[in-house]
Predict the 3D structure of the following.
Amino acid sequence: MFTATALGACAAGVPAWATQAPAEDPHLWLEEVQSPQALAWVAQRNKATLSELQADPLYTPLREQALELLTTQDRIPGVSRVGQDLYNLWTDEANPRGLWRRTTLEQFRQDKPQWEVVLDIDALGRAEGKSWVFHGASFAGPDNRRALLWLSPGGSDASVMREFDCVDKQFVKAGFELPEAKSQASWVDADTLLVGTDTGVGSLTDSGYPRTVRLWRRGTPLSEAPVVYEGQASDVSAGASVEERHGHAPRISFYRALDFYNSELCVWQGTVQELHALRPAQLKPLEIPSDVQVSLWGDWLLLRPRKDWKLPGQTLRSGSLASIGLKAFERGERRFTRLFEPSATRSLEALALTASCVLLQLNDMVASRVQEWRFGPKGPLRRREVKLPYPGSLSLQALHDPALAQDPLAEHYVVYYNDFLTPASLMLCRTGSDQRELLKRRAPQFDSSGMQVRQYLARSKDGTRVPYFVVSAKQMQRDGKNPCLLYGYGGFEASMLPGYSGVLGRGWLARGGVYVLANIRGGGEFGPAWHRAALRENRQRAYDDFIAVAEDLIQRRITSARHLGIQGGSNGGLLTGATFVQRPELFNAVLCQVPLLDMKRYHRLLAGASWMAEYGDPDQPEDWAYLQRYSPYHNVKKGKHYPRVFFTTSTKDDRVHPGHARKMVARMTEQGHEVLYYENTEGGHGGAADNDQRATLLALEYTYLWRQLGR
């Protein structure tokens, strides 16, 4: 355990500058991510946590079980189509960082496809002495021979970019390269890129993302590449994406992300020679409200307003989807076709686009359905409901490649399906038909035959009904003694949908635990309005919703405070932090992962400035007035009884600063509270860089939960 005495004992190793921090925050020195003093502090706490939890008899079997599930060959390879190939990054026990490989659709249909390894990430790391984590590739069409590879040292968001030849399977000598940064790049042609990266003073936004877009020609210094587009320092980012369509000149979307929910879009089309003469002042944004999400699809604009968009004679409702021809819109026409309008229980989650159809992935009382709109030359023709498994989670991925003259997969798409008790399956579908081909299906990873899923409604403080799922044994006794883990997020319009997890199933459910998923406000389960209800000054509603679910579980005698734990990561870490500080008597375990906790300084740390549209600006007195009421770091008190919290983070997390968790632990131990802390030295915002690290983290977490909540 950590105590105030133990914390004081290491103070002798703290530098003088650290002890001279401002009185209001004596722990600022822990924000120095890589300082020797901060890392020594981390090592001491890691050692204490590992010594305690790894000594528990549960730890080793939990870790072995987690590693087996994470590295088993019985997994569905996630694939992306590139020309005639399907690419995949495959990790297993022998290849923890992964084999980047490819196969064909015909091979993929087989039980045991033949894969061609394109790049061994582990071998590359060993040869170069780097802890590389693969972050994706961007291909240069139409032959897709060359690709830009993104490699992260240790799993951070920032990556190195290097040009790779996918035929020769080697990096291109004197090819395009960028040093470690949160960069963005798109191919214009085989010798030209549009690049946003750190090129010195003024090139990044306050959030640490690219502010400018440069046109970079092969063989020339990046510093001499002209700026063709730029945003403001206060933006989240600026960037560009290139759309290749056979028989058309490249179409480029230049965008400014003004904040997380507002953006500006400029559409430009022309030859590469004309692009070289382009300058920022020539680009004019589309006359669309900044809160409207825009998708370009062939000759059409697809528009999703976050707020009601009032136009002469019509209103496009918040959360709806409308279409209009791009050329007609640019001429000033505003005759939209409504493709979807939300209801009290239905919202639009995502889109997938084939050659002639728009596929709508809908949330229907927090389960997925799919609608299909077929378009003709003059616009939408007809809508139909697609028959797919229900209720559960569906994820759609269109296979169409518009760069091909004739695409045999123009109307095909793949669908992933799973729910709490049904392992994932992957199906190949075609528009206009409900017939589907089962490509892959995972075997069950735990015995769910005696389990059930139920959905309940809790009543929040203001009367709002908040849905939540309970996964338990069918014979669960309503005696208040069931170990119960409540998970939540409640932010950034992210929907928490049913999902299958072998690790959760075997590590928690099969051992007698109950799992609860809360669909609180701040998420996207019921569209933008559900998210907007917990924005900024209304953030407390998300915490009230979470508390209401906890109280409802206790009232139904599914569990009791002695056996109830909560879990959340990132914004969910803020959720669990705020909740245990406000209502500590409700919980006996708190798993607070890669969290935000200091809401006074969050906007000054790493990507924090990009989240001010979600939380507010602490430098504005009116915003700090409500932020300070729930900021966990500022509300934890000496002399108050809290459950023993387990905080986890990563030294390599360059999204949510590890200083949040570090400082909270320092403050709580200083106040005399017992906490656990583990900081992985790699892993980025995901907390782990490979499955070995992930298995260790999972075993620590489940060991903690069982110790706190009862076996």
Confidence is low (pLDDT under 50) at residues 1-22.
